[in-house]
Amino acid sequence: MAEEQKQQKSAAGDLAGQAAGKGVKSLGKNLASNASKAAANAAKAVKMGTQAAKVAATAASAAATAGLALAAAAIQAAVEKLVGKMKKEHIAAAILAPFLAIIGAFLAIPLAILGTVAIAILALIVLVPSISFIINSGAYIVPPYTGGVLQAPGNVESPYIRVIKTAEPRVLTNDQLPYPVQYTIQITAKQGALTNITYNNECSVIWDNNRGTPPGCPSASIPDPPDAIPAGTTFTFTYTMTFTLPPTDYTDTLVVDVFTVSADAPVGTSTNRSTASGTATVRIGNPPDECPGPWPVRQGLRISQGPGPQHYPSESVDVPPAGLQVVATHSGVASVGWEGAGYGNYVRISSICNGVRFWSTYAHLEVVTAQNGVIKLGDPIGISGATGGGARGAHIHYDFGGLRMWEPNIYRPQGISSESAFRGCVDSAGVGLCGYVP
Amino acid sequence: MIKRYKKILLVLLLASTFIVTIVLLTRKTQPVPVTPTVIPKIELPDLIKDTPKIETQIEEVTLNLPQTAALLGISTPPLITKDEAVKIASTFDLETNLLEVSDTRVGQTFFGSTEKHFLTIYAQENHIRYSLQSDVYRINKQLSNNALIETGKQFLLNHSLLDSGKIEFSSFVYWKKEDPQGEHMAQTEKAEAELIQVNYTYKIGGFDILTYNPLSSIVNVVILPDGEVFRVDIYRLGGTSKSDTRYKIKKYDEIISSLNEAKVVSIDNGNQGLVEIKLGDLKNVKISNVKLAYLIDNVKSKYLYPILLLNGEVSLYGKTTNISFYLPAISSQP
């Protein structure tokens, strides 16, 4: 029974297989036929669709044309109303007017430029000989400065760049020479990244004038600046200068150098370029003392206030008015500073007198012409005035730190017999209570 | 023939209408004011090389500050030319002795002086200063506030220093000599004033624009009690405009926690030089007043930044006097 069933199943399977084979073929034929029909239908549909689209487009076009025609008809009606009464010449003029206006507008620009150039040339023909005549006659619109040599703009403190320059060691004895001094420069991008960075290093040697012209500074290999310094970071590098004995003799000298960094200011901030500088000094042996003595302003001026506890800092004097040429009373290292209140614009010169480190300050300046770095006795510092706070009348405020404001550090004022007469004096009435600049 | 012309005219009208429409649609809109995405920090001068310990006498409830503030964009007018400097100098009869010098800090500067007065024009800074050389005793005419304000404005106008229409009155500061024999000035009442300082500000809605001297506004005129102008100090600005973005202003807690960032800008009404002072010299620093203002550090800056002016008192060399600090006002908190 079971065998029969197996055989029946087998026969049925064969039949099914044959049937299936025939079925597949039939199905394939049907499918092909159907596909062909479908393709034909699709083609028909596409054709119909295209036709429909064409119809739609034609309809839309017709509608648009109709709309435009309506609009045009309306405008034409309006124009006809407007133009209807116009004569032929008026209509022609109306047509030509816009073209003429456009041509006129195009011509106006070159004509204006040509006109300006022509006027400028005519003006130059008249002005150049006139100005030459004025200059050659010795007359000036703004007269040249005659009070001394005024220096070019120098280093300024930057809100974007901080430069710190240090030397190690800062003090050497003559016995230690030759000696390599290592300089470290730290450049900080205070706000935003610094780019397009450039360096400039100015180095000077101060020694006894009796030794003749001092030598230049030793050569140094300063690395190239980086492409950029990211915001808030500090870029540091070092270089070395070796100070030697004869033939290039650095004994008993003060070496001062100012390292200046310029860079494009960060985006979104004020100006294009920003500059800052740092100064380092190296003292070798015993450089000459630079005690003050002369007054910073010319002879004969009235002194309005002398030194004393009421005059802060107490070692200070005031000499009015504004407009005085102020000069350095000793050599040293100058630093230019500014306080919104207090001193206003000021210059401070640091030096050594009889082995004592001291400074002199020149405050309330209207104009500052000194620069950071080495300054010599008699060099111009600026023009006296009334910058800063507090000061009621304009004057130069001259003070010492580390020295007494009396002989021999400052020449005795004319008309003053003793230090006690000078100390604490105030001459608000202008009668000479504090004497005069000798 | 006429009909043909009419058609041409019609076509031209349609064409011109089309062109005008296209031009109007494609025209660029006005540039939107730029607001910096990153606010640069204000670089306050560190004249005393650190900040003393500050106590506050302010209570949170008395602190009256806005929650937010805009940056102020500056439009700088053309820098002062030599011709303009000469023109200004001529209004003071100083044109014949006007010097042109190069200032180390600010570049091209014009300076002129006589025994009576002097004039300084910092061309690259659009900054002008004028002053009498000294004052002598003047009768106090007890001028009205309006008279003082107008005197200052007229002086600025008459000497081509400023278009007075751009400024508005801000405040008065009254001065007298601290000691008749000394040079230092102290604040006083109007009736006793020997000098009356009239502060003006550019029209920005009530906030002062301060210089690094907190008692000096960006435009100030000092007038003698008889009405003569003693001193003028002005920075010229073309105008100001507020940034689109408003920034959070420090609240009480953040002000207290950031007091170590405050910088001393004035002691004893500006009579005191600051660079000499050591940190240890300043004792018992107490702040009793906080005010929002804008600070100008440079006319070439694109913005004025809001700052907090902290006023109080300090003991210095055994004497109690006033002290002022600046503190950046914009909050660093999100």
From TrEMBL, chain A:
Chain ranges passing through the membrane: 55-79, 91-113, 119-142
GO molecular function: metalloendopeptidase activity
Keywords, alphabetical: Membrane, Transmembrane, Transmembrane helix
Spans annotated as Disordered: 269-289
Biased composition (Polar residues): 269-280
Pfam families in UniProt: Peptidase_M23 (PF01551)
Coiled coil: none
Residue ranges of every copy of the M23ase beta-sheet core domain listed in the record: 321-400
Protein name listed in UniProt: M23ase beta-sheet core domain-containing protein
UniProtKB/TrEMBL annotation, chain B:
Protein name: Uncharacterized protein
Species assigned in the record: Candidatus Woesebacteria bacterium RIFCSPHIGHO2_12_FULL_41_24
